[in-house]
Write a structure and sequence with these properties.
2 copies of one chain form a homodimer. In chain A, about 70% of the residues lie in helices and about 5% in strands. Chain A has helices at about 10-20, 25-30, 35-45, 50-60, 60-70, 75-80, 85-95, 95-105, 110-120, 120-130, 140, 155-165, 190-195, 200-205, 220-230, 250-265, 270-280, 285-315, 320-330, 330-355, 360-390, 395-425, 435-459, and strands spanning about 145-150, 175-180, 185-190, 215, 235, 245-250. In chain A, the strands form 2 sheets. In chain A, strands 1-2-3 form a 3-stranded mixed beta sheet. In chain A, strands 4-5-6 form a 3-stranded mixed beta sheet. Chain A is built from 23 helices and 6 strands.
Chain lengths: ~450, ~450
């Protein structure tokens, strides 16, 4: 057995040569050995568009449909437009309606309508329903390929029904039970159905207490429930509890990957929109640059304003007296850098914690202690270094005391700011690194100034 | 139908009153309506330990086992030690060996051996095997509850075998096919087995081309494959291709959640270790503080060293001439802050991109353009503000030109540094915000100095 046969150069060459020699039968035989995803990889590696189309045409309809489910909108509309209408219709019939709706969502109105025209009336209605939902809702993430049975059926009738529906179903691991009004009332696993006696009534077999999500809810709620209850799929219902679709675990995984990246983009001081554009293979360089600027510039300009305010505060330093004052300015990068770093570490950790659970008093005490101990250690190191380098006790004391204060305050601000944002009902992830740095820069300079005045008076 | 019946206060009160009134039969009836995870939530909300134990004792063995699978090591060893030995043995028999091994891993040696002594010889051997693997390998993540059949069986024999094994199996969606030596040679989905003719030979039905992962590989490889190929479980094999276990999609989801948080911790300038301790409910405040300091201090000290170097470079500024020189120092926070922010945005985005795909020339050009355009905009804004505030053309020009240069260089360093780290085969995620800031602070100050000298000579 070959292990995972991910696309190799050899295979690609073999496919190319079979296409060039018009050996389509052999090509089809070869491809049936491989996983859809690997075939899609090969297709993407073929640079010649004619070859792509030839390869696609050779595939059986169900395999071609699976390829389209994985592909982007450009590939989809390109392939569909190149195929004979009947062949295209057959392939569309095999596609997951959830994936199809996701692709149609990105097409122009007229092209979308043309594709919907190719579908049978039942599928067309279902796709239109899916297109109605926003992308980031449970409804926008669900698909239609589920099996549902009536609660009054016997186990035998249910198995019969399941066998008929199995071909169109995207998952047969859960069978959903509805009442005469189409309301979701229970769930059966395939395992339970198989071991049941033939004449048992579904209503007596089913599990009534099932986890579901409303179609208008955020898709992250679906992720949370699937993750919490270890599900392979979650049913989506409407306000009247009618079953509208399911979200499968592989789509949950896709959402999780996207959301994790989204959080990282926000933490870095950019936006979800930049990520969407960056991940869209069709986007042009110009679109990518515009989206990045849109995401990042607001934070940069806020930061710029902070820097200008900092310069205004620094002009007040002159009262300290010329020579000391200039020497103290040399340590500005050190002072504000360390406060900012401590603060951004504390705020990032708090934002991450908040995305998983509530932040407790214990977490705040922890950040305070970490800031204090880290501050004492860094302040001692800096005191030794600065004294050895400059042999000036005043400067050494002022810098190291300010460093300690700044790091403690950095830690406190870092942990409290996301909590405050959460309290006023915003997303704590907007506390990105640039914002916290700017905020702490200004606080840090004020503390530096205050400490300097105080120390020089005391000494 | 109630929707998701997550733990409510009412239910908690009901459970409490049933326990207090010794109505154990009614309690068991009530609990059977609920999902394991909800029962676990209730158990955690019960503050009284005796009540917890009573509630746990009431549960049937298989439900109790599922509760233990979800729980942490403390709850596990507490419950097992409080139960009668025979009851404990029954519960352990029902547990997923993968989850059990994860818990045993965290127990003291003598307690671990005591638990293993409770197991039947077969389970004991399997658990010992699982304990042998490192946590972050595929072997350390896998479990034993899979169904495997011999390739020479008929479909009917396979279904019989599956029915026998189904009780212990954690997933029956994939049935793995092995040869006489136990080597993994194929896979069948339950769906395919059910629709097959009774006398078909498994070898002819199975899919030979299956995706698997080696036991010694990183668990992230398992995540990548499950996500890429949309799997519900992935088989784990050893060097000789023998089937050793499976990783189920719900464990993949757990790993994904952990890894996403890990990346965020690293980006913030901390470590995986801090996260592990923070998420461990058993860890004391002292342990949490120590782990945070261990993760964050190295970056802070590195940053401190950078700050000291910066002060050394700044002393060279004195050649510029007293009054201009002091004025220029006022803009230090602005200059280095903006360079650092641009750099950390660029490096974070690059680190995130690298975790998903290769960074291409296009990405580098994009970051350069974003730095350049962002730089021009910020530089113009700062020029206007500074001129209006200080009415000094020299300072205005020096600051705004340096700002532009710094932001462009910040963008370039930010995108290239993670690429360089990847090239020398390290994890690009070590380029955390504190490191990139320190690096760019020093570069920024040198540019500032150079520009100032050059401009003042030119004017």
């Amino acid at each position: 057995m070959d292990r995972t046969r991910e696309t190799s150069q050899d295979l690609l060459e073999e496919v190319k040569s079979l296409i060039e020699n018009h050996k389509y039968f052999e090509l089809r035989e070869l491809l049936e050995e491989y996983h859809i995803i690997d075939i899609f990889d090969i297709m993407e590696s073929l640079e010649d568009e004619d070859m792509q189309i030839k390869l696609f045409e050779v595939l059986p309809s169900d395999m071609a449909a699976s390829i389209l489910e994985e592909s982007g909108v450009e590939f989809f509309s390109n392939m569909i437009s190149k195929l004979e209408i009947e062949h295209a219709k057959n392939i569309l019939e095999c596609m997951s309606l959830g994936d199809m709706a996701d692709i149609l969502n990105e097409l122009e109105e007229d092209e979308r309508l043309k594709i919907i025209d190719y579908l049978n009336p039942e599928d067309a209605a279902a796709v239109k329903e899916l297109l109605f939902y926003e992308d980031d809702t449970a409804g926008g993430t669900m698909t239609k390929g589920y099996i549902s049975i009536n609660k009054h059926m016997t186990a035998l009738e249910a198995i019969e029904h399941m066998r008929e529906e199995a071909e169109d179903a995207e998952t047969i691991y859960y069978i959903y039970v509805v009442d005469d009004d189409g309301k979701l009332v229970g769930v059966l696993s395939l395992r339970e159905l198989i071991v049941a006696r033939n004449d048992s009534i579904i209503e007596d077999l089913m599990i009534e207490n099932l986890v579901s999500v409303y179609d208008y809810e955020d898709r992250e709620e679906a992720v949370r429930l699937v993750s919490k209850y270890n599900l392979v799929a979650i049913p989506v219902i409407d306000k009247e509890n009618k079953l509208r679709g399911i979200i499968k675990v592989d789509d949950i995984i896709d959402v999780m990957e996207e959301e994790a990246n989204e959080d990282m983009y926000k933490l870095a001081g950019s936006s979800e929109h930049e990520m969407d554009v960056a991940e869209d293979e069709k986007s042009t360089l110009l679109q990518q640059i515009t989206s990045s600027l849109r995401g990042r510039l607001p934070w940069l300009i806020l930061s710029l304003a902070g820097g200008v305010v900092a310069s205004l505060i620094l002009t007040k330093f002159e009262v300290i007296g010329d020579s000391k004052f200039v020497q103290l300015l040399f340590f500005l990068p050190l002072i504000i850098g360390m406060g900012g770093n401590t603060g951004s570490q504390a705020s990032s950790v708090t934002v991450i914690t908040l995305s998983n659970r509530d932040v407790e008093r214990k977490d705040i005490i922890k950040e305070f202690c970490v800031g204090l101990i880290g501050g004492v250690i860094c302040s001692l190191i800096s005191a030794i270094l600065i004294y050895l380098m400059y042999r000036d006790m005043d400067v050494t004391l002022i810098v190291s005391i300010t460093l300690l204060l700044n790091m403690v305050i950095g830690a406190i601000v870092g942990v409290l700011m996301p909590l405050f944002i959460r309290k006023i009902d915003s997303d704590p992830a907007i506390i990105s690194t640039p914002v916290i740095s700017m905020f702490l820069d200004i606080i840090g300079i004020c503390i530096y100034y205050g400490t300097a005045i105080l120390m020089l008076k005391l000494i």
